[in-house]
UniProtKB/TrEMBL annotation, chain A:
Subcellular location: Membrane
Keyword hit for NAD: no
Membrane topology recorded in Swiss-Prot or TrEMBL: Multi-pass membrane protein
Record organism: Sulfobacillus thermotolerans
Keywords, in A-Z order: Copper, Electron transport, Membrane, Metal-binding, Translocase, Transmembrane, Transmembrane helix, Transport
Protein name (database record): cytochrome-c oxidase
Catalytic activity line of the entry: 4 Fe(II)-[cytochrome c] + O2 + 8 H(+)(in) = 4 Fe(III)-[cytochrome c] + 2 H2O + 4 H(+)(out)
From TrEMBL, chain B:
Its job: Cytochrome c oxidase is the component of the respiratory chain that catalyzes the reduction of oxygen to water. Subunits 1-3 form the functional core of the enzyme complex. CO I is the catalytic subunit of the enzyme. Electrons originating in cytochrome c are transferred via the copper A center of subunit 2 and heme A of subunit 1 to the bimetallic center formed by heme A3 and copper B.
Localization of this protein: Membrane
Protein name as annotated: Cytochrome C oxidase subunit I
Annotated keywords: Electron transport, Heme, Iron, Membrane, Metal-binding, Respiratory chain, Transmembrane, Transmembrane helix, Transport
TrEMBL record, chain C:
NCBIfam families documented for this protein: TAT_signal_seq
UniProt feature, compositional bias: Basic and acidic residues: 1-12
Provenance organism: Sulfobacillus thermotolerans
Stored InterPro entries: Cupredoxin, TAT_signal, TAT_signal_bac_arc
Region (Disordered): 1-21
Protein name per its UniProtKB record: Tat pathway signal sequence
Length: 270, 649, 217
């Protein structure tokens, strides 16, 4: 009995310490920098899993350490052979199997299903009546952004890079396509890319021959200069240009966005 | 000139002949001839603009010629074809000496060591490439790799060789071939000649993948995603062909081992008494028999997409179909690697603790259910491109697969609880493997959750996760198994201080390297990039330093094991006091394993008061061994046993 | 299954007889030689070629020369021309999927070639074709053609060349396309670079480049 009690006490103690550690991690944001509603969902799910898995982690690690400290023979000694050993313990098996089933069912309900339902709800047409629509075209090895509602076909920085700029707190509908608008003799010639803004907490693959949608709302004014996780990055290997298939991104206020649209229009016309 | 000697000479008159060419060199020569013949033929009938000597189609046929030439040269011609056609042959199986490892063999122990030898070769090559990759990632811009395509090719070769020539080969082709027949008390495998040929496909595969840059850089990594693969230079062809050779070799192993376990078990070795390691091998062999033909078919389709070209997997066809087909194989592949490791934990722990295995049936059920569920989870590699409606079912099965995986832990924990275990080198590796797989498994729970996956997919979190599961569980268990069985393999043992020191260094270096991958992934480090934003450099730099230490530690372990193999202290016949049949014969085992046929009369995993030695020699075995088996290697006692030898139980 | 042990021998110990042993030395030397040859073909080709070129020089090409574009490299990637020679370069795109161009000049700022770097507005600081008379013919599968400052004569209807403006002298070919360029090597001796800058210079960044050494007349 002694070992059972010692182990249980240690498990509780270290689990509590682990949970305290989790609070610290969560306060410092384990995903470093998240500025979208979609990313918040991911972050919450991540934190939940972290909190629930900590006792599991502590249990096994403590057991391994416990084995090395308490359950070993001295070097060169043989284990005793004159004992009878249990090969079954229904209570332990029941708790283990039942516990792992319960834990996995819990994870499937929350955060898996609950978070996905929230994400699917964000994707509902009813929730997206006043979206900013951004057509994102991925081609090897470039992101091209156009804003059909504003008649902008390709938005650029002053030195000619493609630029994604979004107003803060406005739902955005990204329309994701992979093809080359400049070389239309084979519009199916492009490859799979993945549209990823690390700070938005989501990536969606862009597949030639298909159109995909992604919905999210940026929640803070920020830019690549503020935090390098605010960047558009291709996350699926797409050939030798893959590491350079990126693009700066700025989330700005409504007024700044309006000015920017005006400037881009002037640039396109002049 | 040397080539001429291999032509069969007419007549039986023995006369002095020059020594034959070393089979490996002859195989190279015949491979070169095979390549030239078919390549030239294809170039002649299908020339390309500019008349290059090697084109995509020509190199495919040329490779087939080379592979056939290689196999013929290594022994298929002398040892199989000539006797099959009724011609006299000079081939005789060598019974001793180092030369038998460098030619065709039918002894499963020689074949097993050949597999291990080639697998370690693949591991060292791919590991060396990993060191280059880590060197490149110390800086956010290109250094030793001049162009991203070089780096991506290196990533692809690293992954492909590690997966197909090491991870699936070492535990199954190597340890499986060597120990499964010994552990079931068999004298031979069923398909020993096929197995002896199959092992020589491993060097074919390794060399093919390694030399793929000769045909041009390929950028897809080990997964060969379409339609990118179809746009890559011809190097991708050698990826398909190399993997074809390697999977074919593993498929032969699976076929042979399953047949051997079904038909060659010792009397009394019922399925209920089958050693756990053998259960692990049988389950993964079944996985291989199911999924390897599937990936081979897929790769043939992708190859045709590239060389014809067809449009199976381009956007005209369906790129997602390739992804589906790849992961349909790809996820079972992960368990093909991991399941033998789980089996080894519960093989070694009861022995080292001299304590009965806890919940043996649960350990077996865990292996079998992991095997079955592994075919239902593939699309969790595709949450970022799956239709929304398909995400939740795959997430469900992915989360559920952790339940049978947990059974391996349950048995191990139940066995170790209140035990007095010998904390020696093999045991230390096993405990480390359990720790590493715990990290790999728990980080996998995050990835199984789709909303988190959408952020972490294709980042270094994933890279950390699968290196924990594969290196952490499989490689660490593999080292544990090798230290455990070293006395069996070589008759020699190792020094505990050295063994433990090396294990601890490896463990620390491994964890310091790969634990930081999770942080890098969370911080926005994506995969397949030799150039990355500068804010990620400090941690990458540090990771690389630990990675170099890890590489050195692996090398140190391999060298130390090699040293002990030759120069270690003599080990006893059964130094750990194990009960499984492989320890009931001399070390290393003789050609036909057991001088007398062992019979299994009790559980192999019960220890302590009142238990008996489960492996005994029967009169039937005595009779069989003395009368026939020493004379006739094809002897199979099943043919003579009155009740079929207890195969049906 | 067949078992091939001769019936008159009790134990198959013939491996000890010297006639049946293959040579250990032959084995070691042979595999080592194959290994070295393999390593050289994998890693040492360019160094070997450079060494050979510095020792023996490079043959001067004149008359009709083929220049093939692959993904993402040229064959040949080194040529020697002589001032005043009459050349016809048949430029051909061997790729099945990508368009490729041929530009030639000097000095490109590679400091830009990193993550989030700026893109150079124009690739070569000095365009080789500036002021050079060149005749284009046999256009097939032309993506576009930028004449820049070259003095171009077009054979056949101009529409086939899809003439554009902006950037260096650059014929760009669709997959499978080809073009003949006829010219007299101008008096611009020295070492010139050529490369393919399409797709944001990534073809060039990933190694699609070469050199032309122009010898004085």
């Amino acid at each position: 009995m002694g070992e059972n009690v010692v182990f249980a006490v240690l498990w509780v103690v270290f689990s509590v310490l682990g949970e305290i550690g989790d609070r610290v991690i969560i306060r410092h944001n384990p995903m470093y920098y998240i500025v979208s509603n979609q990313g918040q969902l991911a972050l919450q799910a991540f934190n939940f899993l972290l909190v629930v898995l900590t006792p599991v982690f502590v249990f096994v690690v403590l057991f391994l350490v416990f084995t090395m400290v308490r359950f070993t023979t001295k070097r060169g000694e043989m284990p005793p052979a004159n004992k009878r050993f249990a090969i079954d313990n229904k209570a332990f098996v029941l708790v283990w199997v039942g516990g792992s089933i319960a834990l996995n069912l819990l994870f499937f309900l929350h955060p898996t299903t609950s978070a996905m339902e929230q994400m699917f709800a964000l994707d509902q047409p009813a929730a997206n009546t006043h979206d900013l629509v951004v057509d994102v075209t991925a081609r090897q090895w470039q992101w091209i952004f156009s804003y059909p509602q504003y008649g902008l076909t390709q938005t650029l920085t002053p030195n000619g890079q493609n630029l994604l700029e979004l107003p803060v707190n406005v739902p955005v509908k990204f329309v994701l396509r992979s093809y080359d608008p400049y070389h239309t003799y084979d519009q199916y010639a492009d490859v799979i890319h993945s549209f990823w803004v690390p700070a938005f907490g989501i990536k969606e693959d862009v597949i030639p021959g298909e159109t995909r949608y992604e919905y999210l709302t940026p929640t803070a004014i920020t830019s690549y200069a503020v935090n390098p996780m605010v960047r558009v990055q291709c996350a699926e290997v797409c050939g030798p240009g893959h590491p350079w298939m990126e693009s700066p991104l700025a989330v700005v206020s409504d007024q700044q966005f309006a000015q920017w649209v005006k400037a881009q229009k002037a640039l396109a016309n002049g | 000139m040397a080539h001429a000697m291999t032509v069969p000479e007419s007549g039986h008159a023995p006369r002095p002949r020059k020594a034959p060419m070393p089979p490996v060199l002859r195989a190279f020569l015949w491979a070169a001839i095979g390549f030239l013949l078919l390549n030239t033929f294809v170039i002649a009938v299908d020339p390309f603009r500019g008349h290059p000597f090697v084109t995509g189609p020509s190199v495919v046929f040329g490779w087939v010629g080379a592979a056939i030439g290689w196999l013929l040269g290594i022994g298929l011609y002398d040892a199989v074809l000539l006797p099959l056609m009724g011609f006299p042959t000079r081939w005789q199986e060598r019974q001793q000496g180092w030369r038998r490892y460098w030619e065709f063999a039918t002894d499963h122990k020689v074949i097993g060591l050949q597999y291990m030898m080639f697998a370690v070769g693949g591991f060292l090559i791919a590991g060396g490439i990993a060191m280059l990759m880590r060197y490149e990632l110390m800086t956010p811009y290109l250094t030793i790799f001049h162009y991203p395509s070089n780096y991506l090719t290196a990533v692809g070769i690293h992954g492909t060789l590690m997966m197909f020539s090491f991870a699936t080969v070492f535990m199954i082709g190597g340890l499986g071939n060597y120990f499964v027949p010994l552990m079931i008390g068999a004298r031979e495998t069923v398909l020993s000649k096929l197995s002896g040929i199959g092992v020589w496909l491993v060097p074919v595969g390794i060399l093919t993948v390694l030399f793929s840059p000769l045909l041009g850089e390929w950028s897809t990594g080990w997964r060969g995603y379409e339609p990118l693969a179809g746009q890559d230079a011809n190097g991708i062809l050698f990826y398909y062909l190399g993997v074809l050779a390697l999977t074919m070799s593993s498929l032969i192993v699976a076929l042979n081992l399953v047949a051997t376990v079904m038909f060659r078990r010792a009397p009394g070795l019922t399925w209920g008494r089958l050693p756990l390691f053998v259960w692990g091998q049988v389950t993964v062999n079944l996985l291989m028999l199911i999924w390897f033909p599937e990936i081979q078919t897929t790769f043939v389709m992708a190859l045709l997409d590239k060389v014809v070209p067809l449009n199976f997997f381009t956007a005209t066809g369906s790129p997602l179909t390739y992804l589906m087909l790849f992961w349909l194989f790809g996820h079972p592949e992960v368990y093909i690697i991991a399941v033998p490791a789980f089996a080894i934990w519960n093989e070694i722990i009861p022995v080292m603790a001299q304590k009965s295995l806890f919940g043996r049936q649960w350990a077996v059920i865990g292996l079998v259910f992991v095997m079955m569920l592994s075919g239902l989870v593939w699309a969790h590699h595709m949450f970022t491109n799956l239709r929304n409606s398909e995400i939740l079912p795959f997430s469900f099965f992915t989360e559920m697969i952790s339940i049978p995986t947990g059974f391996a832990y349950m048995s191990a924990i139940g066995t170790l609880w209140k035990s007095k275990v010998r904390l020696n080198t093999p045991m230390l590796w096993i405990l480390m493997s359990m720790f590493n797989f715990l990290i790999g498994g728990l980080t996998g729970v995050f990835l199984a959750d789709p909303i988190v996956n959408l952020q972490l997919h294709d980042t270094f979190w994933v890279v950390g996760h699968f290196h924990y599961t594969i290196i952490g569980s499989m490689v660490f268990s593999g080292f544990g198994a090798i230290y455990y069985w070293l006395p069996k393999l070589s008759g020699r043992t190792f020094n505990e201080t050295w063994g433990k020191t090396l294990a601890i260094i490896t463990f620390l270096a491994f964890n310091l390297t790969f634990s930081q991958f999770f942080l890098l992934g969370l911080h926005g480090m994506n995969r397949w990039v030799p150039a990355y934003p500068a804010y990620l450099q400090p941690m990458n730099f540090e990771v690389s330093i630990f990675a170099f230490i890890l590489g050195a530690a692996f090398l140190g372990n391999i060298l130390y094991i090699g040293y002990c193999w030759r120069n270690g202290a003599q080990a006893g016949e059964n130094p750990w006091g194990a009960k499984t049949p492989e320890w009931f014969t001399s070390s290393p085992a003789p050609r036909y394993n057991f001088p007398v046929q062992p019979e299994i009369v009790g559980s192999l995993y019960l220890y302590g008061e009142g238990t008996k030695v489960p492996v005994v020699t029967t009169a039937l075995g005595e009779l069989a061994a003395t009368s026939r088996a020493t004379q006739d290697p094809q002897f199979d006692w099943h043919d003579y046993a009155p009740d079929g030898g207890g195969v049906t139980s | 299954m067949e078992y091939e042990s001769p019936k008159d021998e009790k134990t198959p110990n013939t491996e000890n007889s010297e006639e049946n042993q293959w040579s250990r030395r032959q084995f070691l030397v042979g595999t080592a030689a194959i290994g070295v040859a393999g390593a050289v073909t994998l890693f040492g080709r360019q160094s070997l070629v450079n060494a050979a070129r510095s020792v023996f020089g490079s043959p001067v090409s004149s008359g009709t020369v083929h220049l093939y574009a692959y993904d993402y490299y040229y064959i040949p990637n080194y040529m020697t021309w002589r001032v005043g020679d009459r050349m016809e370069v048949i430029f051909q795109n061997q790729s099945h999927t990508h368009w490729h161009e041929w530009t030639m000049g000097r000095h490109v700022n590679e400091a830009y070639f990193q993550a989030f770097g700026n893109l150079p507005a124009d690739a070569w600081q000095e365009d080789f074709w500036d002021g050079v008379p060149v005749t284009l013919s046999d256009p097939y599968g032309i993506d576009n053609f930028v004449p820049n400052q070259a003095i171009v004569t077009y054979v056949g209807p101009k529409a086939a060349y899809n003439i554009q403006s902006g950037g260096d002298f650059s014929p760009t070919l669709k997959p499978g396309g080809s073009l003949h360029l006829s010219f007299t090597v101008p008096n611009k001796p020295g070492l010139w670079d050529f490369g393919c800058f399409v797709q944001q210079y990534i073809h060039y960044r990933t190694g699609m480049r070469g050199q032309v050494m122009i010898l004085p007349a």
